[in-house]
């Protein structure tokens, strides 16, 4: 088994909570680049299944960035008025041959096309931190990675770089032909 999925492979993405319960599953994401350090994928109108069994379909194309050492993942959603980013504060991803998996830690950073941003769900994070007994070390790591993520936004680094989303979206379109 490879340490990462190969380019062109259609995979599922599984999001869990700290207590091990499933949070959300994305049915189909095309791998555009897979290395031991990061995976870039794309999807459009994919079925998402929530923990309670409810299903919905994503509305726009999205480029997904997962890193093996960063405690966040970044979803660039391509809309008519620009790219909106939804960033999950999460564990680094693992690929187990079945799916790309990570733990979602509630905090989210929403980034707008003009690169302004909002930190979301701090109350949910605090509630789950207490309910699921997040260790102090995890709490510190997550808060440090919120700062790291914000610095990426401010520096236009990684998926926030000007051509990143366009470049990978073009590659995704080539796979769909």
Automatic annotation (TrEMBL):
Record flagged with keyword Transport: no
Binding site residues for Mg(2+) 1: 88, 104, 108
Binding site for Mg(2+) 2: 106, 108, 121, 124
UniProt-listed Enzyme Commission number(s): 3.6.1.15, 3.6.1.6
InterPro entries recorded: DUF402, FomD-like_sf, Ntdp-like, SA1684
Requisite cofactors: Mg(2+)
Any one GO MF annotation of this record: magnesium ion binding
Enzyme class, spelled out: hydrolase
Function: Has nucleoside phosphatase activity towards nucleoside triphosphates and nucleoside diphosphates.
The name this protein goes by in its record: Nucleoside triphosphate/diphosphate phosphatase
Organism field: Paranoxybacillus vitaminiphilus
């Amino acid at each position: 088994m490879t340490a990462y999925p190969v380019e062109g492979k259609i995979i599922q993405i599984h999001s869990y909570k700290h207590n091990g319960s499933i949070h959300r599953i994305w049915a189909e994401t095309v791998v555009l680049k897979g290395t031991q350090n990061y995976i870039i994928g794309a999807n459009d109108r994919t079925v998402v299944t929530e923990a309670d069994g409810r299903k919905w379909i994503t509305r726009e194309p999205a480029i997904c960035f997962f890193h093996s050492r960063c405690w966040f993942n970044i979803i660039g959603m391509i809309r008519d008025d620009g790219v909106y980013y939804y960033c999950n504060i999460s564990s680094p991803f693992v690929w187990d041959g079945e799916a790309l998996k990570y733990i979602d830690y509630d905090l989210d950073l929403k980034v707008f096309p003009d690169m302004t941003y909002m930190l979301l769900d701090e109350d949910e994070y605090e509630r789950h931190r207490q309910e699921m007994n997040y260790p102090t070390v995890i709490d510190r790591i997550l808060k440090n990675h919120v700062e790291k993520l914000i610095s990426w936004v401010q520096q236009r680094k990684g998926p926030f770089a000007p051509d990143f989303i366009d470049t990978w979206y073009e590659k995704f379109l080539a796979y769909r032909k």
